[in-house]
Amino acid sequence: MKRRSYAMMLAAAAAMILHGCTEDDPTSPPGSVTGGTAKALLPLSYYHIRDSDGTAPKDSTVVTLLFEPGGTAQLYVANPTEAIAYKGTYSYAAGKLALKFSDADFKPDVSFTLDTAQGAVTLPFKIFSDGAGSSTWERKRLSPQHNFAAIFKAALINESQTVDGAIDRVVAYANALIDARTADKRAAATLASSGPELTAVEKTPNGVRVKYDNGPWNYILLYSWPATPTSGALTAGPLASDPRVHLDPESPHNPISDPPNKTALFIAPFKRLKFYSWVDMLRSGAGMSPSAGYHFSGSENFEFDAMEDLLSDRGYTVKQIVNDDASVTNIVRALADGAGAPGFIAINTHGHADGALTSGTFLGGTQAITGIALKDFEAYRRERDALTAAGYGDLLTYDGGTPDAPATLAWTAIERDMRPGSYSYFLTFTAKFWEWLRLRRNVKFDRSLVYIGSCLTDKTPNLRDAIQARSHIAFNIAVRPELAGATFQYLCKSLSRPSHSAEESYYNIIRIANTRQMIYAEDNLYNGLTSAVGKGQQTELKDILQGYAFDGTSMVPYQSAGWLKTAGADPGAIWWLLFSGRWGQNAQAGADGMRSCWQSFWKDGQTGGLANPGCHNKAPGRAPVEAEVAYASYLLSGLPVVGGSSTTRLPRWTLNDGR
Length: 659
Known about the structure:
This protein has 659 residues and is α+β, with helices and mostly antiparallel strands. The chain is 29% helix and 21% strand.
């Protein structure tokens, strides 16, 4: 596409922006480095003002020239919904810049003097047309992460890099900035003025973590989630038409596995906000447009209102904290001010691999480098003061933090559109937040189910170890909202069935993924979602959705103990015993029936046969072993009816079986 026609297309595209930008500060950093090295260019961004023939970018369109380590130059052209990039080479020595692009549509090959201390410069080529001429540019004073997004997008758009490779480019650029400050003081004089220094960077699966002035880690999302799932449709299993599958038994009236608080808390900071997602469209070749790029954050897949009604019918009081109301202060109140932790907690927000979760407190739009620390955001200062006034000031000082730099809070930068640096900043609470609740506020989650319908939080054990919930279910990848929402709905619908435990619900999710077959009505939620991640990542649900039980000492994975790993037991046999134990529509009677069949037939290796067709039909195609009967009856009623092994029995969680 020719530059002139592309510029016209950019100028005509509609601007769709979630939050307004603040203007970047165009003032010059102190000092001149006309004798500097290539390191002097790394932190700088040059923005095109106009060509010598008067052609200029239209409103909402930006043209930026930036520099990566290793001599890579990028020309990045973008409006809110579309972008194009050109990759070139450069060298800079003794105040002279050599710049070369070799694209058929953009091919300047020039060498000229460049004073990196000057705010306005003239370059000896035009942007929007060929032929002799020059262009005027403004060097802007920007935070390092401003260029992160442009480098990431340019690598994907122009070079067909993988997402992983594009993030590597950002990390290399950030490390080069850090090295330049350390190794070359003259180059450091050109860095973006007197604001806080970038001192550390780490790669994450969907962006980077950064530190400024060795402060707390903050988070930059370079994309939100991977490509749309492509797994095939589920088929109806042999039992799907069996009417007994759809009968719910009477509750065992045993509250031993219920939470003492019949309350549920749904936290969804982005329930009604729109964000821009473009990576999946780019990778699929579907193209980008305003209608395709902007969408709700994914909370519509959770059906929070319908699930509230469902849990209310099972005796729960449900509270939703959504959108702007999902401030850290309000979240603390909901978790800490009741008679104990809510029995059921579900969170849908932007998550991070170290367990951090983003709140609904909007800190601001694109910031200059002087606005990087939390204390520099006015919205944070208001939140800080609100926490202190509400009596939660020790949250800010927990684990060595201070009110201006707490260990429990950070910020997350989320892109708003295709232009470089178009971030929205939100207050984020780290895994230490939950540790503070548990250790300083005595909020115990050891009788709660916690579902984290967010990206990556189970990549490390930080969050689950900090919460220590009776049942904890979360993802270890950047997960699509369709899958996260389906899992939440599945848990609500499955656990609303009397005698169904969290461990059983998790097992059934894995069963659906492994067999690609539906049995229960709610199984259809996973239709097309059983292989639900993008290229280069794990694709099977059993690998990306993890469940745990807190045994009083540690978080034990469902996949390595309990139902799935009981010594001498077949998990499929346990499922059948549970199924058959509910045929009489009374959970306790079903467990008692298992005891009777065991004592009369099964312990002797007999199914019951013609002597007892009931025991014969309830057997899983053979006489079950003791461990299978013990675990199935434990899952059904809360108490095993025979001995069996107790070493792998996981703590049981049920919604409201005591009613």
